[in-house]
Design a protein that fits this description.
The structure holds 2 protein chains of 2 kinds.
Chain A (H helix, E strand, L loop, with lengths): L3 E4 L2 E4 L5 E7 L5 E8 L3 E10 L2 E4 L7 E2 L9 E3 L8 E8 L9 E2 L3 E5 L1
Parallel strand pairs in A: 2-11
Antiparallel strand pairs in A: 1-3, 3-8, 4-5, 4-9, 5-6, 7-8, 9-10, 9-11
Chain B lengths: L3 E4 L2 E5 L4 E7 L4 E9 L6 E6 L5 E4 L2 E6 L4 E6 L8 E9 L6 E3 L3 E6 L1
Classes of the chains: A mainly beta, B mainly beta.
Chain lengths: 114, 113
């Protein structure tokens, strides 16, 4: 089954404790992205990657890091989480030959930073 | 600053009615306008999309109307059904920005039986 998986699905952590949210896709997609979803703000893009070792900032990259060492994986790293990073996070992937909106989203990771 | 403004924030429609969600943008470099549907606990899924050289696109009960001069586009859901109850997001893509999508703030639609 074609899918984007994220782990963990739920995470409670404390300020300053480094964490990584993993994202993996099995569709051999070149493009991958990370979004955060907050009430009243919709989805905002954090980072995106158009190929292995190629990453670019989205609209809200501050406080986040990403890496793209392999095509299938695109982990999101919070080096020193803060309460304002409490949010619902989505990873997405797409084939560059498909329309730019044809993104497959993962199920989401709900993060609470205390 | 919200580059894509979406309204209304929430919408209640009777079964069989027409649901209309509106979006407006300022950036004339946007060249692709998708709509996403999101059910609770799930990620968004592409519903329908349009490019600015087309004024209307229809897929089943879902229609996008696009007004390039007014920089507005809207989603119409005909014969709305309870199963359409979800949050809808409009979005826009600027070609030169690579794969960056800018989303509206979302509309929570409830279709009453």
């Amino acid at each position: 089954e074609a899918q984007v998986t994220q782990n963990p699905r739920y995470l409670i952590t404390v300020t300053g404790k480094k964490l990584t949210v993993t994202c993996s896709q099995n569709m051999n997609h070149e493009y991958m992205s990370w979004y955060r979803q907050d009430p009243g703000l919709g989805l905002r893009q954090i980072y995106y990657s158009m190929n292995v070792e190629v990453t670019d900032k989205g609209d809200v990259p501050e406080g986040y890091k990403v890496s793209r060492k392999e095509k299938r994986n695109f982990p999101l790293i919070l080096e020193s989480p803060s309460p304002n990073q409490t949010s619902l996070y989505f990873c997405a992937s797409r084939d560059p030959d498909s329309g730019p909106g044809t993104q497959y989203f993962g199920p989401g990771t709900r993060l609470l930073v205390l | 600053q919200q580059q894509v403004k979406q309204s209304p924030q929430s919408l209640i429609v009777q079964k069989g009615g027409i649901s209309i969600i509106n979006c407006a943008y300022e950036n004339t470099a946007f060249d692709y306008f998708p709509w996403y549907q999101q059910f609770p606990g799930k990620g968004p899924a592409l519903l329908i999309a349009i490019r600015p050289d087309v004024s209307e696109k229809k897929e089943g009960r879902f229609t996008i109307s696009f007004n390039k001069s007014a920089k507005q586009f809207s989603l119409h859901i005909m014969d709305s059904q309870p199963g359409d109850s979800a949050t809808y997001f409009c979005a826009a893509r600027e070609k030169s920005s690579g794969d960056k999508l800018t989303f509206g703030t979302g509309t929570r639609l409830a279709v009453r039986p």
